[in-house]
Amino acid sequence: MTLEDAKKLAEKLREEINYHNYRYYVLNDPVISDEEYDELMRQLIELEKQFPELITPDSPTQRVGAPPREGFETVTHSVPMLSLQDARNEDEIREFDARTKRFLGLEPDAVVEYVAEPKFDGLSCEIVYREGRFTLASTRGDGVLGEDVTPNVRTIRSLPMRFLKKENAPPYLEVRGEVLIKRRDFEKLNQELIKRGEKPFANPRNAAAGSLRQLDPNVTASRPLDFVAWGIGLMEGERPKSHWKVLAMLEELGFKTSTPRRLCRGIAEALEFYRKLEEERDSFEYELDGIVIKVNSLELWEKLGTTARSPRWALAAKFKPRQKTSRIIDVVYNVGRTGTITPVALLEPVEVGGVTVSRASLHNFDEVERLDVQIGDTVLVQRAGDVIPQIVMVIPEKRTGKEKPILPPKQCPVCSAQAVREGAYYKCVNISCPAKLVQSIKHFASRRAMDIEGLGGKTAELLVEKGLVKDLADVYYLNPQDLLKLPGFANKSVQNLLEALERSKNPSLARFIYAIGIPNVGEYTAQVLARHFRSWENLEKASLTELLEIKGVGLETARSIVSFFQETRNRETVEKMFRAGLTVQEEKEKKESPLAGKTVVFTGALSSMTRDEAKALVEAQGGTVSNSVSRKTDLVVVGENPGSKYQRAQQLGIKIINEEEFLKLVGKA
Ligand code: IVH
Fold it and tell me: Which residue's CA is the closest to the ligand 1 atom numbered 13?
């Protein structure tokens, strides 16, 4: 390929890739598959490898891979990037309208045309396009001097590297807008950071800023940044006459622009938009902190001019903030239905997003550690939508030295039984704790535990609500008269439930250990414990040291078993069950199975089970199944129409049995 041909092809590929990028990242409406897109990219990368002199800075291949830098260069904004005057309520918005008219010498009842659009909570940025190509990107900085973040901004996929439309495109254009992170991406990013042991960001705005101002653009590239254009700086060529048309122009050039937006005749329509957006703010993929109301006519912009800090033609109408600072007065503990004890911070009351907040959940003790939060700390409190208020972070500058650490709970706040750690949580060990009794019953009766049919969640709730069950053992003291009074119970269902309870009274030790609900003891641990201790009495007497000697029992588990039995109420509850006739089967010493360590071969069809089932039976008894007969074979099981393996076994003098004998051997007949 000649250089000339290669150049043409590279151009063609770039145009195509740019267009598909736009369809995917700006319109969210791709017209080719990911594979086809990747193929185009691959072709371009190949070509640029062959002809490196053809690489241009705006080539889609250059979005990533730029080397880290020492620091940021300074960029001077040709038109200062000002800030906006704020309004916090509707009166202040109306006041802005009145002020605008006064300044323009208009009558108070004149109608000014405004554009209302979302105020995105990100980081403002200016991007210079020369001849329709991305050339320079800078942060707002102090408004006059910004930082050169070109390689970082280049990695933002929704930003065109060249204009989508060439005709009448301005030869020089400064595009202004917001670098953002979608809320969902923000949550994901924070989860990843926490997983890696790094500090999460307090909000999407900080995440966007932190990701953009990275000396290593490869870090920026790994962050899901987005760009929404809301205006322009300097422009060569004929400037549109209104802000509405500026946004339309930007859209045609291939940018994401501030949407939804509304062209408003008069401030009343802007107020409507304000109310509507605040109401719907949770349904947007970006975090919005208000709307921006801008006079539409650029001619009026000239007339209105700017103050030192902000233009007179625009207003930021803020929504109620969802993050406020407050102080933690104390920490109390809450018990959930599963016995999980969560720390709750009591706060100096603050109004957040229109609601007074005086408590915030700290979730668990991993969270307390992660936040490094103490009683007395000043913290950032957040409330979004209808979720419970959260503590986002501690403001370390406000520490006085008088703060007190938040200690793990020693006791359950409801029943004052011991609290034991289970992962990130503390749990109440009392199986009859009123806060969790329903859950305890439900677990106790569940299929893999005591398997008491008819004692599900609904019934458990009823029994506790009506006071028929005050501790777990009470389920074995239910009588038909009381049960018949329960809504939905009739003779038949009462009889079924009582029979199911009766049937459950002779559980294996493993089942009973699992059912009783010791924190940290699941089905597997229950089996391990049953095999080791053989009886409930032995388990009850076990010391921490003894428990720790068992393979498969860790420190947390051992501690919670000991705490469980230290709790008098737990021992009494179990005693009470025994008095009701419950007897736990002792775990018998398993005698060595005749198949342990033996190699078994099957030949011919089995009538009572499949080959897989037969294999599982052998394996369960410690034997192995082989496919061919050799001198190492210990036993051959012969079914209908056996094959050559049968003769071979006879030749080698290996023990041969039939299906019936096999079933006896494995204890199934
Ligand atoms: S117009 C003269 N429109 O808000 C400044 N700004 O507080 C004109 N912002 O620095 C700004 N969304 O970063 C404008 N739709 C929007 C915006 C918006 C967010 C940010 C922008 C600006 C800050 C001012």
Answer: 124
Facing residues of 306 across strands? 311
Nearest ligand 1 atom to alpha carbon 123? 13
Bridge partners of 242, per DSSP, are 297
Dist CA 556 CA 14 (whole Å):
59
pTM greater than 0.90 (yes/no): no
Q: Which atom of ligand 1 is nearest to the CA of 121?
A: 19
* 8 A C-beta contact, residue 223 and residue 206: no
What distance in angstroms lies between residue 153's CA and the mean position of ligand 1's atoms? 18
Find the residues whose C-beta lies inside 6 A of ligand 1: 82-84, 117, 119-120, 124, 140, 178, 230-231, 258, 292, 311, 314, 316
Beta bridge partners of 235: 173
Q: How far apart are CA 567 and CA 418, in angstroms?
A: 7
* Active-site annotation holds for 119: yes
Point out the catalytic residue in the list 49, 101, 119, 615. Answer: 119
Q: From the CA atom positions of the chain, what is the Rg in Å? A: 36
8 A C-beta contact, residue 48 and residue 59: yes
Nearest C-alpha neighbor of 119 from the set 147, 84, 82, 90: 84
Nearest protein Cα to ligand 1, atom 1: 230
Sign of CA dihedral 264, 268, 274, 277: negative
Do 203 and 286 contact (CB within 8 A), yes or no? no
CA 266 to ligand 1 centroid distance, Å:
21
- Span 162-202, pLDDT tens digits: 999 888 899 999 999 999 999 999 999 999 998 888 888 88
Name the nearest CA neighbour of 408 among 393, 418, 399, 395: 418
Please give the helix or strand (H or E) that residue 343 lies within, else none. Answer: strand 340-352
Taking each helix axis from N to C end, the angle separating 3-21 and 34-50, rounded to the nearest 10 degrees, works out to 150
pLDDT for the residue numbered 621: 76
